[in-house]
């Protein structure tokens, strides 16, 4: 897998985990944006894998979603690994 493909897979896996955690909490993208201080557009782009999440954003999102950042990243890594096999 080349670097761009790997990067895309990681972004997609993290975005999917953010979306799933948000759904479990029962909040909308707008609510996540308001509560995290991250724009709605950025939330949409993160969840769709079109933007790479930075550490500050990840922590803000995880705080709102009441998810440990490490747990979210572990789940994304597991999902990404499953897609590769």
Description:
InterPro entries: Cro/C1-type_HTH, Lambda_DNA-bd_dom_sf, TransReg_Diox_bact_type. Residues 18-72 form the HTH cro/C1-type domain. One of its GO terms (molecular function) is DNA-binding transcription factor activity. Keywords: DNA-binding. This protein is mostly helical. The chain has a single domain (3-83), classed as lambda repressor-like DNA-binding domains (434 Repressor (Amino-terminal Domain)), CATH 1.10.260.40. The chain is built from 5 helices and no strands. The protein has helices at residues 3-25, 29-36, 40-47, 55-65, 69-84. The protein is globular, with a radius of gyration of 12 Å.
Secondary-structure blueprint:
Elements: H1 3-25, H2 29-36, H3 40-47, H4 55-65, H5 69-84
Brief characterization of the structure:
It contains five helices and no strands. The protein is mainly α and 85 residues long. The chain has a single domain (3-83), classed as lambda repressor-like DNA-binding domains (434 Repressor (Amino-terminal Domain), Orthogonal Bundle), CATH 1.10.260.
Keywords for this entry:
mainly alpha; DNA-binding transcription factor activity; Cro/C1-type_HTH; 85 residues; 434 Repressor (Amino-terminal Domain)
Element string (H = helix, E = strand): HHHHH
Form type: globular
Mean pLDDT: 92
| N- and C-termini, Cα separation | 11 Å
CATH class bucket: Mainly Alpha
Tally of alpha and pi helices: 5
The CATH topology label is: 434 Repressor (Amino-terminal Domain)
Low-confidence stretches: none
């Amino acid at each position: 897998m080349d670097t761009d493909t790997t990067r895309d897979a990681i972004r997609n896996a993290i975005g999917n985990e953010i979306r799933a955690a948000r759904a479990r909490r029962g909040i909308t993208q707008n609510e996540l944006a308001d509560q995290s201080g991250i724009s709605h557009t950025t939330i949409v782009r993160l969840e769709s894998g079109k933007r790479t999440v930075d550490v500050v954003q990840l922590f803000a999102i995880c705080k709102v979603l009441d998810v440990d950042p490490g747990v979210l990243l572990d789940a994304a890594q597991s999902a990404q690994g499953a897609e590769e096999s």
